[in-house]
Amino acid sequence: MLRLVGHVYVAATLRGRRSARVRFLVDTGATYGLIAPALARRAGLSLPGIKVKVRLATGRAVRVPLSLGLVRIDGREAGAAFCVGPCDEPLLGVEALESLGLAVDPVKGCLKA
Question: Residue 52: beta bridge partners?
């Protein structure tokens, strides 16, 4: 795990039909994760046609596809939902953290079990 200017990043493996190594920005303000379409393709995640309405940090509401995959961090693996849409960097939301039994330690700026 890496901490930069108050942000918590974590190295993970995202898996669908294939696996992809990913550096996620942990976003405790997001329910679901967010990944770009290219990353979803690289990890072999399917886009089943389900779209969810989400509110972006800018306040704008959009409908994006929702995909399911497995996330592996520090030997822990769990299923997680990811919104698939344009993003500057992959985000890991609290739903995945809870499934993995992890939380953000705000004092140390890292994840803890």
Answer: 64
* Separation CA 109–CA 111 (nearest Å): 7
111 neighbors 73 (Cβ within 8 angstroms): yes
pLDDT digits (tens, 9 = 90+) for 6-56: 688 999 999 999 999 999 999 988 899 999 999 999 999 998 888 999 887
Residues facing residue 68 across a β-bridge:
81
State how far the alpha carbon of 59 is from the alpha carbons of 54, 56, 70, in Å: 9, 5, 29
Tokens of 51: 């779209």
> At residue 112, does pLDDT exceed 60?
yes
21 touches 42 (CB < 8 A): no
Q: Half-sphere exposure (CA, 13 Å, Cβ side) for 109?
A: 9
